[in-house]
Amino acid sequence: MYFQLAWRNIWRNPRRTFVIISAVVIGVWSMVFLSAFSHGMLASMLDNGKSVLIGDIQIHNKKYRIDPSIDNSMDNPDKIRAVLDKTLPQGAVLTERIKVSTYVSNARHSTGAVLVGIDPENEKKISFLGKSITKGEYLDKKDMRGILVGKALLEKFDTAIGKKLIIMARDKKGKVASKAFRIRGVFNAEMEATEKQFLFITMTGARKLLNMEKGISEISIVLNSEPMVEKTAAEIKNRLDTELFAVETWKDLLPMLKAYVEIFNGFMYIWYVVVFVAMGFGIVNTSLMAVFERVREFGLLRALGLKPWPVIRSVLTESIFILLIGIIAGNLLGYVSVLLMKDNGLDLAMFGKGSEFFGMSRVIYPILTMFDVMNVNLVIFFLGAVVSLYPAFRASRITPVEAMRQ
Amino acid sequence: MSIVRAENIKKRYIQGKVEVHALRGVSVNIDQGEFVAMAGPSGSGKTTVLNIIGGIDNPDSGQVIVDGNNYSDMTQSKLAELRLNKIGFVFQAYNLIPVLSAEENVEYIMLLQGVSAKERKKKARAILDDVGLEGKYSRRPSELSGGQQQRVAVARAIVSNPAIILADEPTANLDSKTGESLLDMMKKMNREKDVTFIFSTHDNMVMEYAKRIVKLKDGQIENDIIKDK
Fold first, then answer.
1. B39: how many CB neighbours lie within 10 A of its CB?
2. Three-state secondary structure string covering chain B
3. Would the CB atoms of B91 and A404 count as touching at under 8 Å?
4. What is the predicted ipTM?
């Protein structure tokens, strides 16, 4: 009967109950949706960051990060390959690259860029390149003269598929190597900077241009589970000579991105506090109104022999019903909002440049995680119940005589 | 046997900046099974006496003993238990819980006493039948007349088998016919169940029904008339 009484009490003033439930619904919805949206943004930042030739773990010559030149390549990768065979977990994929600074030109334009020699099949599995060819074709493993360029560079150079670009770079012997490559395909990247920065040729093409026998600049590894990254990196480090090789995770390679992730998490907690403070005031205010309207009734209950605790329990039960209804409806609304954006996402075209600055995609796909949903629900439920204690205590302190005088 | 013993009760209120002496030393003994009216004009102190006997207000001095329990020795928690188990209240404005049906209002007090659901239902219906509300179990207070609501209030007061029932001007909001019928019903309860009734009233009809009239004036007992004797 306690529950029956509480349930009926909350519907004594349906308009007021509706207003407070709406406040809870909006609070829960905004927290759920914003969490999902933020995760979508973070995932987009991480995907973009990692897919632009980073991956989860990279292995370089120890000196490469300080001086990314051909002199600091890994000349004998067989030993590393053997270690990776033993340490990489199931589902991990890797690719090897040669990366050098280059000078690219055609008849009218020239610029500096990064030339990347790739294994086309493995690269496709790891980086953005496999899904980004919008014109022409992807590279064939045996293609010695083909090159992939970004759309922005293609436009800047006012050139087209089938035309030539001259690549100049310092080779392994320290001489300037130069060769013409024919544009086979054009790639689109999330960020224009990526389209201008990278040029892709095959590994064999790069070796020939740079006079390298079997050396590589880096090995990039992608795992299928984020929590495995640190553990796997540590295992590789244990088996490799760390005086010669650097094993780094994406967090080491993209410190800005790591900082963004932390800032976003902090921002989420600030948002939780803002929403909850607004909602908490609403809950306390309406609960107090409901208590003051029923002073006579609480006085009667005290006169009949009800002790303070059952009065507190009774008011708390009403608040909990309101919180539960609001939480369920807010979750449903949040889930539906996320579901509606599942296929098309939320287009941030109007903030295109800004989002690019943060390394995000223009279209964000919200990601709802069970952890966030539980977090939001527990925060609102427990804090909501805590702030409801104040009106409940006020109700419990109403004395019969004071109530009967009203 | 004395069920209520009040000795030299004094009570003052501060109303605004004025000190009001509500009771100036009231002493009264009431025996088990009495049907007593505390009568007097407005401000004479009759409701204050009832509130103090009911343990919902504290005297400034003097002592109250109900069914052997001395209030001055009791904590608020013990007093609440005493009210729950030994004292029934009937108020002028009925004071039923508006969202509960007649039956649930009666059951509520038994719920607080820890009576089982089955027993509660059985006893609530029986007592509602006794007060003439057969078939009106599921009606909410707003669906009942004033007289019927006051009958529910009496049923609620009596269902917990209290030692005394305190009724603060129970007929004040009722027409004379309904009031008379309610008093008949309470008298019947008094006779059949030997429940002690103490009223505060200035209604002549209630005074006619009462076996004993304690008249109050300016916070003091003016006279104490026992009709039967």
1. 24
2. CEEEEEEEEEEEEEECCEEEEEEEEEEEEEECCCEEEEECCCCCCHHHHHHHHCCCCCCCEEEEEECCEEHHHCCHHHHHHHHHHHEEEECCCCCCCCCCCHHHHHHHHHHHHCCCHHHHHHHHHHHHHHCCCCCCCCCCHHHCCHHHHHHHHHHHHHHCCCCEEEEECCCCCCCHHHHHHHHHHHHHHHHHHCCEEEEEECCHHHHHHCCEEEEEECCEEEEEEECCC
3. yes
4. 0.84
CATH hierarchy code of domain B32-60+75-226: 3.40.50.300
Q: Which residues of B are less than 8 Å from A296 in CB distance?
A: 93, 95
Whether the CB of A176 is below 8 Å from some CB of chain B: the reply is: no
Domain borders along chain A are 2-49+257-405, 55-252
Would you call A401 and B56 a contact, using CB atoms and an 8 Å cutoff? yes
Pair of tokens at residue A380: 């609102």
Note whether A305 contacts B83, CB cutoff 8 Å.
Answer: yes
For B76-130, write each residue's pLDDT tens digit: 889 888 998 889 888 887 788 889 999 999 999 898 888 999 999 999 998 898 8
**Interface check A9 vs B, CB under 8 A:** yes
Taking the C-alpha atoms of residue A207 and residue A220, their distance in angstroms, rounded to an integer, is 18
A68-121 pLDDT, tens per residue?
888 889 988 888 899 999 899 888 999 999 999 999 998 889 999 999 999 999
CA distance B150 to A116: 92
Q: Which amino acid is at A323?
A: L
Asked if B154 and B174 count as a contact pair (C-beta separation under 8 A), the reply is: no
Cβ of residue A402 closer than 8 Å to a chain B Cβ: no
Q: Is A169 helix (H, G, I), strand (E, B) or coil?
A: strand
The partner residue sitting opposite B56, judged by closest CB among A12, A296, A400, is A400
Q: Whose CA is closest to A268, among A40, A34, A42?
A: A34
Is A399 at the interface with chain B, CB within 8 A? Answer: yes
Domain boundaries, chain B: 32-60+75-226
Query: Are residues A383 and A279 in contact, defined by beta-carbon separation less than 8 angstroms?
Result: no
Strands A176-187 and A146-150: parallel
Whether B137 and B128 have beta carbons less than 8 Å apart is answered as yes
- DSSP letter (8 states) at residue A350: G
A340 touches chain B (CB under 8 A): no
